[in-house]
Write a structure and sequence with these properties.
By secondary structure, the chain is of the alpha+beta class. The chain is built from six helices and ten strands, in the order H-E-E-E-E-E-E-E-E-H-H-H-H-H-E-E. It catalyses: 2'-deoxyribonucleotide-(2'-deoxyribose 5'-phosphate)-2'-deoxyribonucleotide-DNA = a 3'-end 2'-deoxyribonucleotide-(2,3-dehydro-2,3-deoxyribose 5'-phosphate)-DNA + a 5'-end 5'-phospho-2'-deoxyribonucleoside-DNA + H(+).
Length: 269
Amino acid sequence: MPEGDTVWRLAQRLHDALTGGPLTRCDLRVPQLATVDLTGRGVLDVLPRGKHLLTRFEGGLTLHSHLRMDGAWKIYAPAERWRGGPAHQIRAILGTADHTAVGYRLPVLDLLRTADESRVVGHLGPDLLGPDWDPAEALRRLLATPERPLGEALLDQRNLAGIGNVYKSELCFLLGASPWLPLSALPRPERVPTLAKKLLEANKRRPARITTPSARPDRRLWVYGRAGRPCLRCGTEVRTADQDPTAEERVTYWCPTCQPDPPDGHRAG
C-alpha cells in the first residue's frame, strides 16, 4: 500500500497535469458514478490527505480516491500508449488538452461536495505532510490508548495519517523499540511524531525511500524487506511477523537484538 510520501508525490504530479484548463474527457467507470460527466470543469487542486487523494473541481465537487494495495493513477501525454493495465481495470479517466490521468484498480472512488470532504477524511489524525500537522495532537492521540502496541498505533490513521508498513518498521527500529512494546512502556514517546515527520519529509521528493545513512540500493532501509538478512547495525538476523493477525498485508520487520522484547515477556512470531 502506498504510504504518505508516495501519495504526496502523486498528488503533485496529478495537480501539475490536470490544473490550468478544463476537462476535455471524463469517464468514471464505477456503477454509482457511471452517469457523471465533469467535462468542461476545471481541476482546481489535487490534495493528499494521509493516504487519500482529493481532486477538487470547479463547482464545489471533489473526487475522492484511495489506492489501497493495488490501485494506481497514471499520467499520459496525448499520443502516449496507456500501460497501467488492461482496459477492464480502468476505473477513472480525467483528460485535458495536454494530459490524461487514468486510474487503475481503484478500490475507492467517490464524488462528493467539497464542503463535505470531512465525511471521507475527517476521521484521520494530523497529516504528517499536510498543513494541519500538529505533533502535540498526534502524541495525544497515540497516548490515548497506552496499552496498545507501538506498531499497531503507528498504523492507525486516526492517530497520525500517512504511515504504512515501511515507516512503521523503520520507525520502531530507529526508536530501538519492539513493535509489540506498549506505548506506556516507550521511553520519551514525544520522539514518535517528531521522527515520523522527519522521515516522511526527507523522502517525499525521493523516488526511492532512504532511512539509513547509505544510498546503496541494498542498504537504504534498516529492517524493512530484510527478512533473514543481517541487521545493518548489529548483524542479527532480521525477523518478520504479523503485526495484527486480523489484518492483511501488515507484516512487521524487526531486529530482536536492537529491538528487545517488551518487558511483559511477549514475544512475536
